[in-house]
Specification:
There is one protein chain. The chain has one domain: Pnp Oxidase, Chain A. 17% of the residues lie in helices and 40% in strands. β6 and β7 form a beta hairpin. The longest helix has 11 residues. The strands form three sheets. Strands 1, 2, 5, 8, 9, 10 and 11 form a seven-stranded antiparallel β-sheet that branches. A two-stranded antiparallel sheet has the order 3-4. It has a two-stranded antiparallel ribbon with strand order 6-7. By secondary structure, it is α+β, with helices and mostly antiparallel strands. It contains four helices and eleven strands; from the N terminus they run αβααββββαββββββ.
């Protein structure tokens, strides 16, 4: 069994903290024109938590001589979940609500063309002391992404010292984990 001192010596005390990340939203052109790059950067800064999707294989049971064996047939990824603080102007919620509203025309109840509501999100993880894109130790890129759930927000008179937040669940078609040299 490995002890904590041995673990520290293996890593040179260089563990990665979960708070060392940067998210970049690249919304579809159909809503990007409404927001300046400064607006989007402020929205990115108010993203206080990200759950990177899990990767797994879908399997089927193959039975041979009474003993089932799981056989993989397709790679699958979970949804991306982001958590956001709400700003005093309402820009954060409006940005994501605008994106979400591009999926379906509320007047006709018809779904829009994919190009009208897909964008991409890039998440970069950094080691201590670095926040430069070239120094990212991991980069996840979700292509053809769009918000499928805009979570509710809790409001309470008992919560004077808490910030108002909401979460978003995203669907996407392509997930890439880029090596550090590829994430530029």
């Amino acid at each position: 069994m490995i002890n904590i001192d041995a673990l520290k010596s293996l890593s040179n005390n260089n563990f990665v903290k979960s708070s060392k990340y940067k998210i970049t939203f690249n919304p579809p052109a159909a809503i990007a024109y409404k927001y300046t790059r400064e607006d989007i950067e402020a929205i990115e800064a108010l993203t206080f938590s990200v759950t990177v999707p899990a990767a797994n294989y879908l399997t089927y049971d193959w039975v041979s001589k009474g003993v089932p064996i799981k056989i993989p047939y397709q790679k699958s990824y979970g949804d991306l979940i982001t958590n956001h603080h709400i700003d005093g102007k309402g820009t954060v919620r409006a940005f994501f609500q605008d994106w979400h509203n591009k999926i379906m025309n509320n007047g006709t109840n018809n779904f829009e063309y994919l190009e009208n509501y897909i964008g991409d999100i890039i998440i970069r993880q950094y080691a201590d002391g670095s926040h430069e894109d070239l120094d990212a130790i991991a980069t996840w890129k979700m292509d053809r992404i769009y918000p499928i759930i805009i979570g509710g927000e809790s409001l309470s008179y008992d919560s004077n010292d808490q910030l108002s937040t909401f979460d978003i669940t995203w669907s996407y078609n392509i997930l890439q984990l880029l090596r550090p040299s590829e994430g530029k």
